[in-house]
Each structure stands twice: as C-alpha cells, then as structure tokens.
Amino acid sequence: MRAPATVGMRLEDVDTPALVLELDAFERNLGRMAAALAGRGVRLRPHAKTHKCPTIARRQLLAGAAGVCCQTVAEAEAMVDGGIADVLVTNEVVGAPKLERLAAIARAAQAAHQTRRLIESVGLRCPTVTGGGSGSFAYEIESGAYDEVQPGSYVFMDADYARNEWAAPLPRFEHALFVLSTVISRAAPRRAVLDAGLKASSVDSGLPLVWERPGLRYARASDEHGVLEMAEGAPAPELGEKLLLVPGHCDPTVNLYDRYVCVRHGVVEALWPIAARGAGS
User: Fold this and answer.
1) What domains, with CATH codes, occur in the chain?
2) What is the pLDDT of residues 51-65, one digit of tens each?
C-alpha cells in the first residue's frame, strides 16, 4: 500500500487516515518505564503484541528491556526476522504446524502461569516467572514473585488506559499514538464527519477521543466514517481540517495499518513498518 507520508513532510500534509507516533512522547514513555524498574531486580520484557514492530522492539531493548514477548507464533517470527534475539511466546501453542514453526525459531522453552513456589513444590524447575501488564506491573514488582514484567501499552497508551485512576509513585505515561483524520463533511451546524471510522480505529474498548479539542466528541462510527458532535460554544472544525484521535484500544488499532508515521515537532521523521500486522497465528 502507498505510504501516507514522506520523511520531511509536515503533519498537516499527511494523507489520512494515518497512524501517527509522536516520538518525543514515545521516548519519554520508554524512559519512565526504565526509571520505574531501576534497582528493583525485575527485568522488563515488553509485549510486542501492542506495537508489532521490530523497530520499536529494538528501541525498547536499547532502553533496557531484556527481550520481548509475543502472543502468537507469527508475531514471534516477525520479531526474530527483524533481528530481535530474545523472544518469549506467552500464549498456548496448539497444533503441529505452529509447534514446528516455533521450534524453528526458539532457543529455549519457558513456562509460567503460576507462582514459582507452587511449581517448584512439585519438583518442577521454574527458572523464570514472567507476567503482568501496563496496568498492573507495579503490583507484580512489589509481590516479589516475578523475575520479569510484560507491559505493552505503556509505549503508546490509549483512551481506555486514560480512564484508569493514577496516583504517585506510579509513572504517568503519555499518549503517543494517534489516528490522523480529516474533516470531510460539515453538513450540520453542530456535527462533522471524519474519514476515520471502524477501519481506522478499534472501538472494542470505547470510541476514540479527539485530542486537544475541548467540546468535540467522537460520537459514532461506520466502516469508513466517524461522526463528531460539538458542544454549544465549542469552536467548530473547518472542512478539510486535520484532527488527531486517541484510539480506544491501541493494540487492535495498530493491526489496521501497514506503518507508523513517526513525527517530531510536527514533521515526519521516519516511517516504521508494522511487520507483524495480521500475525494472528
């Protein structure tokens, strides 16, 4: 598929809908997770099912991650093909074809879904206990039962995570992933239509949020369109105006796109392929 942008292009000139990664916020999220784990004796193994991108996985490794984990064999294959050497499949793998594929890329087999104490009490060796996620990793760290934690969404955050309560000393992660959309209709005074619908942003965890435009609400979606409703007195978007949306759920939204449009200070800095898009087996 044709890329929606080229390096050096201004954000407002990017074709839509497009998946935008705000690099400064993304990099701050990497740093905050590293700081949260510093000196705690627990390794970071972020979940690549969130981003499906070896380029992002490499940046997580550079920020201190021990490796990555994946939910499917196909995701693991994409990570290994992209140069990621330490990959853990955290889901059940059933069927000879998948097991053969996994054996072809695996360096070792690891098992965890209970505490080390219970496993070892029946004489089974458990070298690594790994688990948890972006919403619970702090509790796994404090439990003393984990060698690794597996947060994924922390690199992007989404509207669903934004609804969770936050309190110090938990790190506050930023929205870094957006869907860029265009206003394509202003047929009614308090309503606008965007070119970003169900095929542009997953709604399984709620509708997208309109970024930094108070009074604008993403009200409903069809296949190719999203309807905005405007509160009384809210500035109305212009026909052709570009708006950023915060996806309701980042993981399945990423799976709708071929690449990230990586932006810094309003300018496209890079395009990163989503190598594991559609890797559901």
Assistant:
1) 11-22+174-273 (2.40.37.20), 24-155 (3.20.20.10)
2) 999 999 999 999 999
